[in-house]
Give the backbone structure.
Amino acid sequence: MRQLTQVIEVFLENQGRVAIEGLGEFHRESDGELRFTPQNAPRVFLAYVAEDFEKAQRLYDDLKRLGADPWLDRQRLVPGQNWPRAIEAAIEVSDFFVPLFSRRSTVKRSQFHSELRYALECANRQPLDQPFMMPVRVDECGVPRTIARSVQYVDLFPDWDSGVAELMAAIDAAPRRSG
C-alpha cells in the first residue's frame, strides 16, 4: 500500500491528478490532503469503423458533455498497450455498449464486428431486464438481425441532437451494472 501511495504522490506532483479508469480520481485538495473522488458517470463504450471516426468522436464529445464517461479507442489507448485486450477489458467494465451502425460498418470486415460479438457475449451475462447494448445508426442502414430482433436502436439522423438526447435519456434511466 505504501508503494502505491508513493506512485500516486509522484504522479500528482507531475500531472496534478491520477485517474484510475472505471474507479475514480486522486487529487490534492487546497489544504494539501490527498482525496479520492469515485467515478459515478455511466461508462459507455463506443464501437465504430475507421471511416466513421468523426461521428464517433462527435458522439464521444456529446456524451462527455452530458455527464457520461465514454470510452473511445483513440482517446483511451496509449502507445505500447495491448489494444485487443484493452478493448475487451473496456467492454467488460462498461455499463453500456454503443455500436455506431452505418452503411460502411454493416458491410466492412473489421475489428468493429469482433467488438460486437464480444459485447453480445457480455450482454448474455447481464440480467435480462438490464440494458447493455444501445445501438445507434448514423445514417440510413440496416442493423444486423441478431441485434435488431431484440434491441431497439436510436437514429442520430436526420436530427443528431435529438438522437443523442434520446440515447442519453435511455442511459440515465437504465440501472447500472454491478460487478
User: Anything to note?
Assistant: Residues 113 and 160 are 24 Å apart (CA to CA). The mean pLDDT is 90. The chain is about 40% helix and 20% strand.
